[in-house]
Amino acid sequence: MKKTSLLIMLAFLLLILPSTVLAFSVNTNNTVFIGENDVIEGNLYAAGQSITVDGHVKGDIFCAGRTVIVNGLVDGDVICVAEAIVINGEVGGSVRVAGNAVSINSNVARNVQAVGASVTLSSEANVGWDMFLAGVFGEIHGKVNGDLHGVVEQLIINGEIGKDVRVRLCKECHDTKTMPLVVNKDAVIHGNLYYTSSKAGSIKEGATINGETGFSFSDKKHKKHTAFASAWEILFSVFSSLLIGLVLISFWRKEIKDLTNKMLAKKGASIGWGAIVMFLTPIIALILLFTLIGIPLAAILIGVWLIAICISKILVGILIGRSMLEKFYQSKKDSLIIAMIIGVTILCLLSTIPFIGWIICLTAIWWGLGGIYFHFKKCDDKND
Q1: Residues spanned by the domain of 378
Q2: CA-CA distance, 149 to 125, in Å (whole number)?
Q3: pLDDT, position 20
Q4: Distance CA 255, CA 252 (A)
Q5: Are the beta carbons of 247 and 47 closer than 8 angstroms?
């Protein structure tokens, strides 16, 4: 699968997996297409350049790709990462997505949480509960029955908000033509409008705001938005890890099982060798840089080292998930997809614990690096 430019990505939301996780479909083709007459009896896990869902998914959709288009009915949640995401079909749960361009054009029964350079809620869209958006540009043309929260550079509201609007906008709008907030004449806000920005927004004549309107230059009154931003950072981390893990499992299922088995069998040795690999590799690369002819090799070495560090935490997450399934759900102990979702999410959450989170994260990196080292060492020994 080609490398795509993705916005990376609330982790605790993924912990609450519905019972339909036990019935699922996995599709990792370059092009994934679920036809209009197709029915997925459970969750759909999909990864590919292009993902189109025209059929009926009775569970959740977990997907990652370049383009994601959902035209069919989804009974559960839509949780996806892609460059372009378009939701045209009705969603019975929530939409939690991250991408460069996000467009929602249908009814969403619960919440919408969207991260993107551009997030659009069209005039045909209706969000049953709350909406949170983060990114550069947001447009609200449809209806949000609950609250609208956001951290964006610029926001345009043309639609209807059932409760409050609380947003943090452009911090430094040097361009006098840039208007951080625009509430157009057809907009209806049934609650309050509170926003923080470097300058006042534009509320057009005819716009309806039933509650108070509050504008502030200070961030002190908006700590809640900082919490939202931090939560989305966790979500970014979870989504990026799940995306990479889905690709790894798709192509190297047997190798990952063998590798994580060895990591579990040689915990101490793996962590020790992982620490050595982590600290010794940059030193070797630095020495190669001074040899001139070793510069290309140094660049390759650092690139492989960074990739291994990224993969290492995912491997530890899969190991944690496999151990939990082995202990609590024997019938699904061989499902690497479920193990990855559970384990990666738990590891990301543990990494956010104050004071000790960084220790957990560093140990996980060492453990995974050691596992990778032993795996390739074994391969070399066989070749010899």
Answers
A1: 252-383
A2: 17
A3: 32
A4: 5
A5: yes
